């Protein structure tokens, strides 16, 4: 187990919400879940996944199947419910990643506002 991987107590909370595949070998769900958590904790590309977690493409495929099936949404709701039942959830604290929050055009720097042109204008766009 590496830094950031789930502890045994955390895994007992998460495991019931992760379905097994419909066919094939039984995967090591804990390792794959830890790999997905590594990806989002580090923010690196899937291809940079450490070898100890297995093949990056296998982990990515498992993540996509969980996301499409709503497994991760159900897991998040269950964990919030569990924390609230234990009195450990403070839902007043919400974090917004500012790298994905778009600002209103009026909040752009003045230079950027003047650079906007009509798409049909034949003049080239100025470089900012």
Explain what this protein looks like in three dimensions.
Helix 2 packs across helix 3. The model has no long low-confidence stretch (mean pLDDT 78). Helices cover 44% and strands 0% of the residues. It is globular. It is built from five helices and no strands. 8% of the residues are buried. It is mostly helical.
List keywords for this structure.
128 residues; mainly alpha; 5 helices; 44% helix; globular
Quick synopsis:
The protein is mainly α. Helix content is 44%, strand content 0%.
| Strand residue content | under 5%
Number of helices: 5
Q: Based on DSSP secondary structure assignment, what is the total number of beta strands?
A: 0
Task: Kindly report the average pLDDT value.
Answer: 78
Q: Which range best describes the helical content: under 10%, 10-25%, 25-40%, 40-55%, 55-70% or over 70%?
A: 40-55%
What series of H and E elements makes up the topology? HHHHH
Q: Main beta sheet: strand number and arrangement? A: none
| Low-pLDDT stretches | none
Distance between the termini: 47 Å
Which descriptor suits the 3D outline? globular
Look at the helices and sheets and give the structural class: mainly alpha
Gyration radius (Cα, Å) is 21 Å
Write the layout of secondary structure elements.
Layout (H helix, E strand, L loop, with lengths): L7 H7 L14 H14 L13 H14 L1 H15 L24 H6 L13
């Amino acid at each position: 187990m590496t830094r950031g991987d789930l502890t045994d107590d955390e895994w007992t909370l998460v495991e019931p919400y992760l379905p097994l595949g419909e066919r094939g070998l039984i995967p090591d769900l804990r390792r794959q879940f830890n790999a997905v958590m590594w990806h989002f904790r580090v923010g690196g590309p899937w291809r940079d996944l450490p070898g100890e977690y297995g093949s990056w493409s296998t982990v990515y495929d498992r993540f996509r199947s969980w996301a499409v099936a709503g497994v991760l949404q159900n897991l998040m709701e269950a964990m919030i419910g569990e924390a609230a039942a234990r009195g450990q959830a403070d839902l007043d604290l919400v974090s917004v990643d500012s790298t994905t929050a778009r600002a209103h055009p009026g909040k752009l720097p003045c230079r950027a506002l003047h650079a906007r042109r009509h798409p049909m204008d034949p003049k080239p766009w100025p470089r900012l």
